[in-house]
Design goal:
12 strands; six-stranded antiparallel sheet; 19% strand; 3 domains; Rossmann fold; 393 residues
Length: 393
């Protein structure tokens, strides 16, 4: 438990953090990677280069300092972080390294304000936070290890099938090399995949949503080949691998998943945000779910519409499934042209009792969330997934 004095001191540093901004987190990462370059095997260096990780960490620090006396407010954010850590195999021994560089960074950047008393308070606060994370992550690791089909650390999987889904997206069927069953994932969760491209000095870990329902035999991920503003290191490497290649996977993780299969459900995606939605949709259709399902998707052109044939076939087979598609540039096969406007829909959305799931670019999800709130959907029934460092919509 933190003392009242510690809480007071940490909260008093919020203005200092705000004034320094992401300078603190930029300095922190440079310092940490300089002293502990082995951590480059864990962190996404592309997000580092783009500044996304620094921004996410700064927001997390500021939120923790602001809410240190009411950590329940941070429950959802911490759960998301814990799952991401589990997909990276973050271990208890990593926390003292990160904490040491964080404290050293604050001492180096704001030495006058970061007095011994403030330092002691932050060390206490960090110890409490790390204990919470270590405990929660230990529970995730134990679940993954002890559940039927589960494992600890990485496990080798063979690419037993590659399928082109659209102009930029390819699906990879991943089957365990040991021939044993795999742990069931919750529809919407992702896998951590660890590879080492030939042109990379360090190992690369990325998270990709599982794009099919659980079957106990294998997983499927569907990966967009990132080309702009420059080619994605991991996505392009995966696309180049021939069928039969072997990769390493961490067990399924993620706090974005189908919460309730007994209510009307609306799935809303854009671009490669389709991937977790396909797992949710397949699960809903194969379960005892009898309520209406609405699947709304937006993309640029018909060539970028993944799973189009699958969705058409599912719509034909299941009367309770309704779909609508927006192509920003128009073209054959879409219902609407331009940006997704929910008021254009011919079908009635379950505003009062439906569950809404969003996945796609941040700006798209923020745009759709605003529309849903304006239509009267309660915020608690809007769930979303972000690829990369966590941000709020």
């Amino acid at each position: 438990m933190l003392t009242d004095n510690t809480i007071k001191i940490v909260k008093s540093t919020v203005p200092l953090l705000a004034e320094a901004g992401t300078v603190i987190t930029e300095h922190f990462y440079k310092r940490m990677f300089s002293h502990n370059p082995e951590l480059k095997n864990i962190f996404n260096m592309t997000n580092q280069a783009k500044g996304k990780q620094q921004f996410a960490l700064f927001n997390a620090l500021a939120a923790y300092a602001q809410n240190i006396d009411k950590l329940a407010v941070l429950k959802d954010a911490l759960e998301r972080i814990n799952h991401k850590h589990a997909s990276l195999n973050i271990l208890p021994e990593h926390y003292p390294i990160v904490g040491g560089h964080l404290i050293a960074t604050l001492k180096e950047l704001i030495p006058d304000q970061f007095t011994p008393e403030v330092e002691y308070a932050w060390r206490e606060a960090y110890a409490v936070l790390s204990d919470i994370c270590i405990t929660e992550e230990a529970a995730l690791y134990a679940h993954n290890k002890n559940t039927q089909g589960g494992w600890s650390g990485t496990r080798q999987f063979e690419m037993t099938n590659k399928q082109q889904e659209s102009e930029l997206v390819t699906s990879f069927e991943l089957t365990p090399v040991d021939g044993k069953e795999v742990i069931s994932h919750k529809p919407g969760q992702y896998l951590g995949i660890k590879i080492k491209p030939d042109n990379c000095q360090y190992e690369q870990i990325r998270q990709y949503s599982i794009s099919q329902k659980a079957n106990g035999k294998n997983y499927r991920i569907s990966v967009k080949k990132e080309l702009f503003p420059k080619p994605g290191v991991v996505s392009n490497y995966l696309h180049s691998l021939p069928q039969g290649s072997v990769v390493e996977l961490y067990p399924p993780a993620g706090d974005f998943y189908l919460r309730d299969n007994a209510t009307p459900t609306v799935l809303v995606s854009a671009g490669v945000g389709q991937t977790p939605m396909m797992a949710m949709l397949e699960t809903l259709l194969s379960d005892k779910h009898t309520e209406k399902i609405i699947y709304l998707h937006a993309c640029e052109t018909p060539k970028q519409h993944s799973f189009a044939n699958d969705l058409n076939e599912l719509s034909r087979l299941y009367n309770r499934l309704q779909t609508a598609t927006w192509f920003n540039q128009g073209g054959e096969g879409c219902n609407y042209t331009g940006l997704m406007n929910l008021r254009d829909l011919d079908t009635e959305l379950p505003i009062n009792n439906g569950e809404f799931y969003l996945c796609g670019p941040v700006n798209f999800m923020a745009f759709i969330k605003t529309q849903l709130l304006d239509l009267g959907v309660d915020n608690s029934r809007i769930h979303y997934e972000l690829f990369g460092p966590h941000q709020d919509l």
